[in-house]
């Protein structure tokens, strides 16, 4: 039985459909789950549904369980009626409170039963969120407790409710990978990657990329992956490209309360803004000065609405990018918003081999938009697949220019891919748009392709005609290759 189907891939990013049987709905992914505080609703759940198209939200069952005002109404009327929301409702279990206050007063069995009884569609056991950088012993011990609770969750009577299997393991990639494999083996339905909020709060996007990549190695392609607590739109593209399907956001409301304004490039403070760089109804109808002059509650709600518009807008942008095969170009663009995001993108590219496994073989046109493009999975794949081609002859010309009859065979050369059989020149990714002023890194990647081909054919003699490659690239070409510059006079 599977509740999750992938319709399209781009890198490890997925367009998918999560079927939530208890709610009778299918949720399109990637998506965001707005966090709804049962006590304080900055934007009503019915508004999230009607104005923003929310198909799913998340609320905290532990808060409801502990609330004298809301526990009985939740049990009597059910969550959907209580919150006035007809889509899917996921519930958290109190793990966050556990990590903040050190203890909570429910067991996994109790809170899962309560979640089932209030009509939650996706329930969560009480896992132990182990923060980054703790001792390995602590991470291992807490992981063992989490795993034991996941096994108890499997045995619990949860009816039609989907149940999550959170993946912990702190900042130890091998523990994350093992935890993910164990979570997968439970057969539970949704896989939240836990305790990553501290990494995001500290802008440690490279560490975040490594953690997500490790979890994905353990999970494989089974089930939807939820990046727990990730609510800033600036990092959706990167997280999606690594294979995350679900995000949740309290940020839209929490930031608004502090007059903070979300953009896909980062966060602005209302006091520092003279213009709104956004086309949503809030930003079209108001200036920052007008908003600043409003009463706190009204201002907070309007800012929360803007934050939701930009959040859902970025989710649609990510989906469209996966659909059109341009997700990595989007990640590249978003990475320019902050140097730590660029670190995150570079760390993501360290896992290019992993991303290559699910990447589409054919897309639109590869755009070379930065030196990072030279490290994309498509370049790696091209180099790996050079062993699929035979060479017929002793003298081979590799050239960025035209063919020459003096050679037995002529191959094309194109930075950052390197050499390719000429009849492949019209196929992806060799149709790439590369700037005429290609950078050193593109030349170096092409030189690595040449080196790989030369190594595969020790008995063939090669001549490389390049278009003014950087010296650092020419150094990477094996010595036995004769070199000529395309524009040098013979
Ligand atoms: Zn706006």
What does this structure look like?
- This protein has 490 residues and is of the alpha/beta class.
- 41% of the residues lie in helices and 17% in strands.
- The protein is built from 21 helices and 18 strands.
- The protein has helices spanning 45-52, 61-65, 71-77, 79-83, 95-101, 108-117, 136-155, 173-185, 197-201, 205-219, 236-241, 251-257, 281-285, 288-292, 296-324, 327-335, 339-350, 352-356, 377-384, 440-456, 471-474, and strands at 4-10, 13-20, 25-29, 31-36, 56-60, 88-92, 122-123, 162-163, 191-193, 225-227, 246-249, 260-263, 266-269, 395-399, 409-414, 418-421, 461-466, 482-485.
- The strands form five sheets. It has a six-stranded parallel beta sheet.
- Strand 17 (461-466), helix 21 (471-474) and strand 18 (482-485) form a beta-alpha-beta unit.
- Helix 16 (327-335) runs antiparallel to helix 17 (339-350) and helix 19 (377-384) runs parallel beside helix 20 (440-456).
- The longest helix is centred in the middle third of the chain and has 29 residues, at 296-324.
- The radius of gyration is 26 Å and the shape is elongated.
- The termini are far apart.
- The model has no long low-confidence stretch (mean pLDDT 96).
- The structure holds zinc ion.
- Zinc ion (ZN) binds at residues 276, 278, 280, 282-283, 306, 309.
């Amino acid at each position: 039985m599977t509740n999750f189907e992938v319709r399209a891939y781009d890198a490890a990013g997925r367009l998918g459909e999560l079927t939530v049987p208890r709610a009778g709905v299918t949720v399109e992914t990637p998506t965001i789950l707005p966090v709804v505080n049962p006590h304080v609703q900055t934007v009503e759940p019915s508004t999230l549904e009607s104005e923003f198209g929310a198909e799913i939200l998340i609320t905290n069952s532990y808060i409801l369980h502990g609330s004298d005002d809301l526990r009985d109404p939740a049990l009597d009327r059910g969550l959907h009626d209580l919150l006035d929301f007809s889509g899917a409702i996921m519930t958290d279990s109190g793990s966050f409170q556990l990590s903040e206050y050190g203890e909570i007063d429910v067991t996994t069995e109790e809170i899962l039963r309560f979640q089932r009884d209030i009509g939650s569609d996706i329930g969560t056991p009480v896992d132990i969120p182990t923060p980054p950088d703790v001792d390995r012993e602590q991470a291992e011990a807490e992981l063992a407790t989490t795993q034991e609770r996941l096994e108890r969750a499997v045995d619990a009577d949860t009816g039609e409710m989907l149940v999550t299997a959170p993946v912990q393991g702190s900042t130890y990639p091998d523990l994350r990978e093992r935890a993910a494999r164990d979570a997968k083996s439970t057969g539970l339905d949704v896989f939240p990657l836990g305790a990553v909020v501290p990494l995001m709060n500290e802008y440690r996007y490279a560490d975040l990329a490594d953690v997500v990549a490790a979890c994905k190695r353990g999970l494989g392609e089974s089930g939807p992956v939820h990046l727990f607590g990730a609510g800033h739109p600036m990092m959706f593209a990167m997280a999606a490209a690594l294979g995350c399907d679900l995000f949740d956001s309290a940020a839209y409301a929490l930031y608004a309360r502090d007059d903070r304004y979300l953009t896909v490039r980062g966060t602005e403070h209302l006091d520092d803004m003279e213009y709104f760089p956004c086309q949503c109804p809030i930003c079209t109808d108001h200036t920052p000065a007008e908003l600043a002059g409003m009463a706190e509650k009204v201002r907070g709600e309007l800012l929360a609405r803007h934050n939701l518009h930009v959040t859902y807008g970025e989710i649609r942008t990510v989906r469209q990018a996966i659909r059109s095969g341009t997700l990595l170009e989007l990640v590249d663009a978003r990475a320019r918003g902050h140097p730590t995001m660029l670190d995150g993108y570079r760390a993501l590219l360290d896992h290019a081999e992993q991303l290559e496994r699910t990447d589409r073989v054919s897309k639109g046109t590869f755009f070379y938009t930065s030196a990072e493009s030279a490290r994309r999975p498509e370049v790696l794949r091209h180099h790996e697949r050079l062993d699929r081609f035979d060479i017929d002859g002793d003298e081979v010309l590799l050239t960025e220019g035209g063919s020459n009859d003096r050679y037995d065979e002529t191959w094309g050369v194109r930075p950052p891919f390197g050499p390719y059989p000429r009849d492949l020149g019209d196929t992806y990714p060799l149709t790439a748009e590369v700037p005429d002023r290609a950078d050193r890194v593109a030349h170096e990647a092409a030189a690595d392709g040449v080196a790989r081909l030369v190594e595969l054919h020790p008995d063939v003699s090669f001549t490389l005609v390049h278009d003014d490659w950087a010296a650092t690239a020419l150094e990477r070409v094996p010595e036995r290759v004769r070199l000529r510059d395309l524009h040098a006079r013979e």
